[in-house]
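I can't quite decide. Please look over this sequence plus structure tokens:

:::
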Amino acid sequence: MGDQKNLLLAILASLVVLLGFQLLFPTEEIPNNNITQEKDESFAPEPEAIAEMPKARNEIISESERIKINNKYIEGSITLTGARIDDIILKNYLTDLSSNSDKVKYLSPKGSSDSYFAEYGWVSTNNNIKLPDANSIWTSNKNTISTNSPVVLSWDNGNGLIFKRTINIDEQYMFSIEQTIINNTSEEISLYPYGLLNRSGFPKLSGLFILHEGPIGVLNDRVKELDYDDLEEEKKISEKSNTGWLGITDKYWLAALIPDQNFQFEGFFQSFNQSENIKFQTSYLGPKISVTPNSERNYSSRFYTGAKELPILDKHEKNGIPMFDKAIDFGWFYVITKPLAYLLNFFSSYLGNVGLAIIALTICIRIILFPLANKSFKSMSKMKVLQPKMMEIRERYGNDKVQMQKEVMALYKKEKANPLAGCLPILLQIPVFFALYKVLTVTLEMRQAPFYGWIKDLSVPDPYSIFNLFGLIPIDLPSFLIIGIWPLLMGGTMFLQQKLNPAPPDPVQAKVMAMLPLIFIFLFAQFAAGLVLYWTCNNVLSIAQQWIIMRKLDNEKQEK
């Protein structure tokens, strides 16, 4: 049984299992029947409708009074109207590879066409208490917030209640928010703290079915993922939890609300239709906080907004945010995928090039899987040596299928060969293939990472095509005809590897197998260049390993 045939069948079988399981058992949506709050206490903060036409992002920012944000990783501002965190720019990431590319604008103000912001506050079952809302103007003790230099916002309701909000930011992407109530009245009041993350419209998705983009959270030690389409139909999903977080994830970015982990909270995933515009929101409602006269109480939470850099997520997980690394969709093979991601990160930082890191990672995987691959290649090499004898048996007993099968089995027994021995090692390698595919698809290191020559971004397909002479002819081609150099190299190595394997005895099967390299060229031309680079290098190492084994077997045969 040929290596490429075994690998193809194993991958196809695995894909059928994976896709079938997803269809039969979709991502769990935890029902609301575990919510035990009283009816008047189970409510989620809702955004206020905007009557005006959307404005440009920069126009809204320039028209409002703001506190500047500035540290090593992000810049932007917080509006004093509503005290929203609504202007976040990622300093270290560009929108594209052009010379005049802008930095990634992640969060945008309320009222813009692509609004995306975080808001905090208090709600109450007592409508007579005047609380700060989305239009309240807060005062600040300074004009800039930076690492270890917090700002304190204040708002007085004029009836004896003062609300303060202390906002700090670490050296990376994490805000800490402490909300304080000062009760100068003669009565005890009870309020509920909340935090919400509101996003306008359907964001552009990467289009990969293996990657989750949309509302996400960890509630009751379970990862909860919701698609935008499903949430639009469902409208509202909620669950109480003692610890966890919730937010919205993109392929490379994350905005997450982290409530105080010392108190139970209720998390909400919602969608709203406002003026022909849909909005998606994740939010939490904290515990009842009672403030006696002439005293104060506070509630602390955190807010993450930035890149999904694995070491940073792991650092925050160690600091009390459960399963925060699950914001990166490592998939079913998490125990394999995450170490591979760290290994890729290590090689990338050491070698200074992600493409070289992929090659180094490929070599490491081949070394780890060497015993399995060695067993498989030995079995296939032995089968190739026996192929002339098998063809002779088939010619002699072509009309007697039973006798032919007996003679073939006798040959296997005599030569101690097992045609299935090459299949199991390949099947055991399938989880590693899927895990590496995940790593090269979802990890931030791949984004806009150059290799050498014409490959400027390993996270996108090889840009040139043989059909326009690799860019020499200035014509636009449909995507399926963009067949770059690396897919061609991959197809060539696959063809060479087939020549080292025993040909299938069935002529029809042999023709199908001969077409596989061509089919894979067109298939892999649509994949990220980094994945094609891995597959090509893996084929080269397989060819070398198999050639050495075959040469060794030939030498042993000659010695006999």
Observations:
- Residues 1-7, 13-42 have pLDDT under 50 and may be disordered.
- The two ends are 26 Å apart (CA to CA).
- The longest helix spans residues 529-559.
